[in-house]
Amino acid sequence: MSRGARVCSKRVRDSLIDGRNREHLPAGSRAPQTESAMRRPLFCCDHQEIELPEGHRFPMAKYRLLRLALERDGQYAMVQPRPATREEIEWVHDAAYVEAFLHGTLSAQAIRRIGFPWSESLVKRTLCSVGGTLAAAREALETSYGGVLAGGTHHAFRAEGSGFCVFNDIAVAAKWMLDPKHGGLERVAVVDCDVHQGDGTAQIFEDDARVFTLSLHGRKNFPFRKQRSRMDIELEDGTEDEEYLSDLGAAMDAALTWKPQAIFFQSGVDGLACDTLGRLALTHDGLRRRDRMVLSACREHGIPAVVTLGGGYGRPLEATVEAHANTFRTALDIFGEER
């Protein structure tokens, strides 16, 4: 475990109850029973489902299907996180933007850019998603690995949302890790493997020397106006497994040279060949090897890993669900099932 993780571990441990942080639990919930308390928690938000119009292209059903698939495995304890607070959101987002979103007063243009119609259900789900990544970050500093079946909303900028992303959960949780009153770390890396550039994350941390932003994405894909990450690897349409993994290996070497004390892994699976928005030609085996490359490096270097979801728009949807599930299965294989 890194020095930064040790700084935080006693603080986090002191707040645990029955193997969980109280803040992980929604109001009125009981702590998990002893039988499940030994299993690693996996934070999930599909109980807060966004109300979308019929025919909307975002595959909201994948979150529930993913949770059910991993529940059938019986190796994780599913935990509903508390929603993030406004104060936590404003660690990285403009207060006026946060106010307008929470109260439904964003302009029609701003709503179109996000891609979801505003609703109270969108507000609840968004806050839960950020809360889940915060909970996973706490878990990672305590036990080396934390995961959330949501998040990875990397297109959210400081003062606007975009591309199905309202608030940037990774940025909020990274700020928590870097705060001396919370995580107490000095260097954090973001390894973003979604096929679309993590433009919002890059913009939020463009002037923050404590954060190494790495994005491995399609050169010709959305967003069409790219931001500048600390390292951008641009892939051509049709890129296959071996080329992809070679580029990722070189990028991971650079990220590790920077000596991060925690890594956020945005594990989008929209690089699958069957993805309707991806344009790459990756296989399930290639994505499993990708996950193992990133997470094994974290394990071998004693770097706590926070794993979020990301994009995945495959047809059939079951292919996307399987790819997402494999990421969290790989994480258990590397970090162990028990805490």
Structure commentary:
With 339 residues, the chain is α/β, with parallel strands linked by helices. The chain has one domain: Histone deacetylase domain (Arginase, Chain A). The protein contains twelve helices and ten strands. An eight-stranded parallel beta sheet has the order 4-3-5-10-9-6-7-8, sandwiched between helices. It has a two-stranded antiparallel ribbon with strand order 1-2. Helix 1 (3-14) packs across helix 7 (120-143). The relative contact order is 0.15.
Fraction of residues in β-strands: 5-15%
State the fourth-level CATH superfamily: Histone deacetylase domain
Helix content percent band: 40-55%
In the predicted model, the low-confidence regions spanning at least 5 consecutive residues are 1-33
Query: How many domain regions?
Result: 1
What is the overall shape?
Answer: globular
Mean pLDDT: 91
Distinct helical segment count = 12
Highest CATH level, the class: Alpha Beta
Q: Quickly give the CATH architecture.
A: 3-Layer(aba) Sandwich
Widest sheet: strand order? 4-3-5-10-9-6-7-8
The rounded distance between the terminal residues' Cα atoms is: 14 Å
Biggest sheet record: 8 strands, parallel
Number of strands: 10
Structural class: alpha/beta
Measured on Cα atoms, how large is the radius of gyration?
18 Å
- The string of secondary-structure elements, in order, is HEEHEHEHHHHEHEHEEHEHEH
Descriptors:
two-stranded antiparallel sheet; alpha/beta; 339 residues; eight-stranded parallel beta sheet; disordered N terminus
